[in-house]
Design brief:
Layout: H1 5-13, E1 29-33, H2 40-48, E2 55-60, H3 64-72, E3 79-84, H4 89-93, E4 98-101, H5 117-134, E5 139-142, H6 147-160, E6 169-171, H7 174-188, E7 199-201, E8 208-210, H8 223-234, H9 236-243, H10 252-269, E9 274-281, E10 290-298, E11 301-305, H11 313-335
Parallel strand pairs: 1-2, 1-4, 2-3, 4-5, 5-6
Antiparallel strand pairs: 7-8, 9-10, 10-11
């Protein structure tokens, strides 16, 4: 519950530190960091159209005023504000309910997500450093690759600032779910809008594990279909990078996935509990600290980790070593090892 203005003034006069809190769930603020980029612009468009978003704060190092002006001409509920450069980052994220981070450089042909590490690791570290001070209660959704490493980076920064809450930090793996559902529907002639395929593990290569055995509606796959479908889902990002021939990576599908996940977080804040796959700190799989599974979202972020029970256990086991390598790389980056 918010303090009345008189109490806030009294607290400030007495030198008490006022810790930023999230807004009321009736007026959700979503901050989009990297709003001028290839993912950020279409993601901003989708968030502007989300009827649950009351305030959309756009942040980037360049071009934010133009993007904000463009989006503000759309006749939807969300108020749009523009914030440019490090000096305006604090205002962008202050009191945000949800912070979505697609900031960073995209992949080019021949690059893996891990090749982005050196540049994107520093971007995420610096953004989260400000978030820790200005919006410690926000739900943070990280899209910036390599997600398997950038989420641990964010966690370590939040820990250093004494505000880490594992329920409030997410790696967005929704694109893997979206792709799996599209590919399965295409292959089997299903209605894509009614096809559900959970995806667990991480967000790169063999760590992406589609649980085809749990597809809804119940679907039988031949061994040959599984052998073709699984690597296609795992390498779908590279498929887009190569098709764009140096002009970018998956931006439109990622924007849709990011908006879908942000909407799920806002619905959770408002008390509409729902289940999504996300990469979070978890004990769902033995021997690895972060893992994507279906999680129940609610007012505090992760309300419940639903875990993994599947016929794909061999794929899960094979992903652990790769995930641990990615996680350790992120932790070491923050700790300076």
């Amino acid at each position: 519950m918010a303090l009345p203005a008189k109490s806030l003034a009294s607290a400030a006069a007495n030198g008490l530190r006022l810790v930023s809190v999230r807004n009321s769930s009736s007026q959700p603020k979503v901050a989009l960091l990297g709003a001028s980029g290839g993912i950020g612009q279409p993601l901003g468009l989708l968030l502007k159209q989300d009827p649950l978003v009351a305030h959309l704060a756009l942040y980037d190092v360049v071009n934010t005023p133009g993007v904000a002006a463009d989006l503000s001409h759309i006749d939807s509920k969300a108020k749009v504000t523009a914030h440019t450069g490090a000096a305006e980052l604090h205002a962008a994220v202050k009191d945000a309910d949800v912070i979505v981070i697609p900031a960073g450089v995209p992949r080019k042909p021949g690059m893996t997500r891990d090749d982005l590490f050196n540049t994107n690791a520093g971007i995420v570290r610096d953004l989260v450093e400000t978030i820790a001070k200005a919006a410690p209660k926000a739900l943070i959704a990280i899209i910036t690759n390599p997600v398997n490493s950038t989420v641990p980076i964010a966690a370590e920064v939040l820990k250093k600032n004494g505000v880490y809450d594992k329920r409030r930090l997410f790696g967005v793996t929704t694109l893997d779910v979206v792709r799996s559902q599209a590919f399965v529907a295409e292959l089997k002639g299903h209605d894509a809008t009614k096809t559900v395929v959970p995806v667990v593990g991480g967000h790169a290569g063999i760590t992406i594990i589609p649980l085809l055995s749990q597809t809804k509606p119940s679907t039988k796959f031949s061994d040959e279909e599984i052998a073709k479908l699984t690597p296609r889902i795992q390498d779908a990002g590279t498929e887009v990078v190569n098709a764009k021939a140096g002009a970018g990576s998956a931006t439109l599908s990622m924007a849709l996935a990011g908006a879908r996940f942000a909407n799920a977080l806002v619905r959770g804040i408002k008390g509409d509990k729902n289940v999504q796959c996300a990469y979070v700190e978890s004990d769902a799989v033995k021997g690895v600290q972060y893992f994507s599974t279906p999680v129940e979202l609610g007012p505090n972020g992760v309300e419940k980790i639903l875990g993994v029970t599947s016929y794909e256990q061999k794929l899960i086991d094979a992903s652990v070593a790769e995930l641990n390598k990615n996680i350790e790389k992120g932790v070491a980056f923050v700790k300076g090892k």
